Structure formats: structure tokens, C-alpha cells
Amino acid sequence: MTFDGTVPVIATHLGHLKAKGPPGPIWWRFGRAELQTLTDALTNTRDDYLARDEQRRQEREAAYALKDQAVRDELERWQESWACPSCGRDVTPVPTDTHVLRPVK
User: Fold this and answer.
1) Which DSSP letter does residue 69 get?
2) Positive or negative, the Cα torsion across 35, 40, 45, 47?
3) Which of 74, 100, 103, 79 is nearest to 89 (CA)?
4) Quick one: how far is CA 44 from the chain centroid?
5) Residues 6+ apart with CB under 8 A from 2
């Protein structure tokens, strides 16, 4: 995605203009959350976009890793169970006591 040749849309409020003056951080650029100085609001920094994109990617990967680990743990638990010879229900070792076997509920 390239932003070359684009013009950012910015806005301000007269109250901010009176309080801080034009050089202050009074300009809001559409698509951004914070107020900026005029120079910062007009600057099309690709680095900022890439940093936000990288942050979102890392958050997605972390969420995927947590979900993947939960699936692996459940699969491992399921693989450790076996059918009870007398009742046929799945039996799995209780993690806190290795000498006790209980049917899975």
C-alpha cells in the first residue's frame, strides 16, 4: 500500500485553536486517535503505518499461539485417556494424583 501523492484530511476545533494556537498539538488527522502538530498531521510516515501493522500482526500471532496451545493440550489429554474395561467410558489419569484413575465426566 502506498500513500504517495495523497493528501491527509485534518481538522481542529476553535477551542483548541484559541487555547494552544496553530503550532500546538490541535490538529486531528482522520484515521488517527491523537491530536498532533500541523507538521506531524501532514506528514505521511510509512514507518508509523508499518509499526501499527506489525503490532497487529504480533497480536494475531499471539492469539493464534494461545489457541493452538489449548488445542494441543486438549489433544494430549484426549490421547492419554482409554476406555474402561468394565463400563466402556473414557478414563484419564487425574493430574494431581497419578495413582487414581477416574472416568471422564
Assistant:
1) H
2) negative
3) 103
4) 24
5) none
The Cα 81–Cα 20 span in angstroms is 68
Under 8 Å between Cβ of 37 and 4 = no
Quote the distance between the C-alpha of residue 23 and its chain's center.
34
Task: List, for residues 39-72, the tens digit of each pLDDT value.
Answer: 888 886 677 778 889 999 999 999 999 999 999 9
Which strands make up the sheet holding 97-103, listed edge to edge? Answer: 82-83, 90-94, 97-103
Cell of 68: 493452538
Query: Measured in Å, how far apart are the chain's first and last C-alpha atoms?
Result: 52
d(CA 22, CA 37): 8
DSSP 8-state assignment for residue 71 = H
Confidence of residue 86 (pLDDT cuts 50, 70, 90): confident
